[in-house]
Amino acid sequence: MSRPAGNTRLKAARVAAGYNSQQALADAITTAAPRLGIRGLAVGVRQIRRWESATPPWPQPDVHRVLTHLLGQSMEDLGFTPPWEAVGRQPDTTVRSTARTLRTGTRLAPVPAQSTTARQPATVGRDFETITRSHRHLYWSVAPATLHPAVLEHARLGCALLPETANPTRRILAAALSESYLLVGRVEFFDLRQPDQASETLLRALQAAGEADDPLLGSAILAHMAFIPGWAGDRDAAVERMVAARTYARRGDASAELWAWLDAVEAECETRCGNPRDALHLIGHAEDTLAVGSEYPTPAWLDWFSPVRLAAFKGNTQLTAGHLPQARQTLHQVLDDLPPESDKQRTVVLGDLAAVEAADNRPEEACRYATQALDQLSITWYATGMDRIREVRRTLAPWQNEQCVRDLDDRLYDWGTTVSALQR
Predict the structure, then answer these.
(1) pTM for the full model?
(2) I need a surface site. Which of 152, 157, 332, 366 has the fewest CB within 10 A?
(3) d(CA 225, CA 228)
(4) pLDDT (tens digit, 0 to 9) for every residue of the chain, 424 residues total?
(5) What's the rounded Cα separation, in Å, for the pair 201 and 177?
């Protein structure tokens, strides 16, 4: 028997904001109220539980103000129905609201709640899922600026269809919608370097995963959300989100690959926050997890991770830790083992090899690898790869009058590369 999903929008927003329990959100509301000039306001777990039920009551104005301040969304986006709209509301209100959002183009459409009337056939979930799967495959070869609007419009279509479906079709559609928003968020963060936009998109993905009641997708989304503060050096926020990601993974039948990837994500966050020793420990644990294996299958959407991708994480961490011979050996092996379709990852690995050679006072070798990475970027753009090359160029400052570095500058700042970098 299926259980009522409850107010999954509020749950998703609470976890995304770092409040992993209802008690944590209740405490935060009570603490934040005086800072907003509201005295005597106290909220308990019982009230949060009511808000996360299938029929959440509309909060009082003072609570409304604090809740939107803490979670950064409107009450409607948090799953509440204003009392002035509850009476006489037509089943297609959510669809009309979504259409209005798409026309204005000012924000992402919220993931809609279920309607009382299903008007779509049972096949719509699988049909939508087929397109989502195709977008997943296209990610590895299509230019991000071209793919991004196509996947985003597909996700918006899913938002329009979702209120017109009933379970089990609704769960199939919601899971595919969640995966589409996850792909959009990945493009925004890794390919286009738009972390603020990616944060909002990933929150939509988490809401849709809640509608699908898919904890493994929820785990993957939360781990992606950990990248954002992790890359910015905010370790506490990254660790909080990783705790949530692991909690969700325990609720499902997580495969060894998913557990190992969670270790790899946390390792990259630790590396960027200046803790390479902790990161190497996490990578070692991930290698052991993959060696032992698991009885559970790896989700089809987990196509961004493999043992060779874990080795790429490891090489970057060894570089950061100053273990240059080990990093060089690891990254060379990664280059040999990468499949042909991994052009984006190849750019990053070449950038890391360039960084190894620069750190080892070998500027000519560093420039050679950086130039190879630029050649790859001219075929498949990847903002993360360009970031690596720029970091290498900064470390080459002591040799900036050498011919090899001048040649690299000519390549780095030619017309095509400069325009591609600036327009993205």
Answers:
(1) 0.75
(2) 332
(3) 6
(4) 444 568 888 988 888 888 888 999 998 898 888 887 787 788 888 889 989 988 888 887 778 888 888 887 888 888 888 654 443 344 333 333 333 333 333 345 566 655 555 688 999 999 999 999 999 999 998 888 899 999 999 999 999 899 889 889 999 999 999 999 999 999 999 998 899 899 999 999 999 999 999 999 999 999 999 999 999 999 999 999 999 999 999 999 999 999 999 999 999 999 999 999 999 999 999 999 999 999 999 999 999 999 999 999 999 999 999 999 999 999 999 999 999 888 889 999 999 999 999 999 999 999 999 999 999 888 888 888 888 999 999 999 999 999 999 999 998 887 666 655 555 5
(5) 12
Q: Which helix (H) or strand (E) holds 281?
A: helix 276-292
Assigned token pair, 14: 């609470």
Two structure tokens written together for 343: 């052009």
> How far is Cα of residue 15 from the mean position of the Cα atoms in its chain?
14
233 conformational bin, left if phi > 0, alpha if psi -120 to 50, beta if neither: left
Domain ranges of the chain: 1-80, 318-424
User: How many residues are there in the chain?
Assistant: 424
Structure-block tokens of residue 89: 């509301």
